[in-house]
Amino acid sequence: MKKNDSNIKKAIKYLNNHECVAIPTETVYGLAANAYSKKAVSKIYKLKKRPKSNPLIVHYYNLNDLKRDCEIDENFKKLYIKLCPGPISFVLKLKKESMISKLVTNNSNSIAVRFPNHKLTRKLLKNINYPLAAPSANISKSISSVSKQDVVDEFGSKLKFILDGGPSKIGMESTIINLIGKPHILRFGGIESKIIYKMINALSNKNKKKTKIKVPGDSKLHYSPGIPMRLNAKKNFHNEAFILIKKRKEISKNYFYLSKTNNLKEAAKNLYKILRKIKNNGYKKIAIEPIPNIYIGEAINDRILRASKK
Ligand code: TXA
Ligand code: MG
Question: In terms of Cα–Cα distance, which of 166, 188, 204 is closest to 87?
Answer without folding.
Answer: 188
